[in-house]
Amino acid sequence: MGKLPMRARLATTLGGAAGTMSRLAGRGDGSVIGGVIGLRLEPDLLALLSAGRQVVLVTGTNGKTTTTRLITAALGALGQDIASNAFGANMEAGLAAALGKAPDAPLAVLEVDERYLPAVIKATNPRVVTLLNLSRDQMDRAAEIWLVARRWREALAGARDCCVVANADDPLITWAASGAEHVIWVAAGQRWQEDSWCCAVCGSHLLRDELGWRCGECSFRRPSTRWVLDGERVIDSAGRVSDLSLSLPGQANRSNAVVALAVAEVFGVVTAQALPRLRDVASVAGRYTRLVRRGRQVRLLLAKNPAGWLEAFDVLDPPPVPVLLAVNAQVPDGKDTSWLWDVDYRVLRGRRVFVSGERRLDLAVRLEADQVTFDLVGDVDEAVDQVEGASLDVIANYTAFQQIRVALGRAE
Ligand SMILES: [Zn+2]
Fold it and tell me: Whole-model pTM?
């Protein structure tokens, strides 16, 4: 803290005080309000707070919060303090707050909103930028994610002494990363392919086979990878094969874990050291947690966009475990629920399905079109009361997830 200029120190102190007051007033964990005030007093706060640290940035449409947590866990092997925005406050104020709270941590692992990545690269001069995937979010359509990819590409091409760890199975990620000086390619898989049918270089159709993807018209193709997710196993940069055996469920989390292992190696933490630490992560910001409610186990899954819903379906407990789907359309969720039509719900047939949330009727119409039978419920307890077995899975979008978490008593 001593090396910060006076103005930044003042900004951090006042921001921290505001965060404390916000916490005391019961307005969330106070991390963002502190950063907002700090940045207003010192617009260069992020750059000043990042100076002298080794910074890892993590971005992508899905998996940011989990991957940030996994990288933090892996780098724990170094035995140094790590600053991190562990609860997903991922715009500039959230980042400033996370750094301000850990002024002496030599390492920082920060989740960054996709749109802020170029500005944050500039401000923090990162050691590693981690690119997971890029697909349509709640309100966006393809044109917008192509614009995001273009801005990433320009920012990464201009970044010095920065190592990019990128998912080579996502063509748009590959295109964005390939302008960078140094890239470590990871075969992390790509389940959602609806936003990457076209070549980012020439616009032709991409072809896919078991070796990956390539353009039918130009030389743009999947680069050869140093790290591979192979089912339940990872093949590391030295060709060693290890079972992942994570506590976190699903293909998407295995993919996040392989990316985290690749990032850890940049810092000299090898797979044998990192993997046991990844296995210890059982829940992330309330996700995947199993809570007991009225004698039944309730597990919470967050899904914010079409690709996220596919990932959530992948980790559902098998039938007859019922599922509650909860959808809101507040500002953080996106006001427009037309994305519901991008998801294929037919996998839910033959399972008891409950539907709640402010936009439950929109979801109900969508499920009817896919011939999925369901019951409308007012809240999570109404669903729990109707569960016949021992457990219930819940998939909710952002604010619906937070509401249910509060209703169930906010356990981590
Ligand atoms: Zn092409």
Answer: 0.88
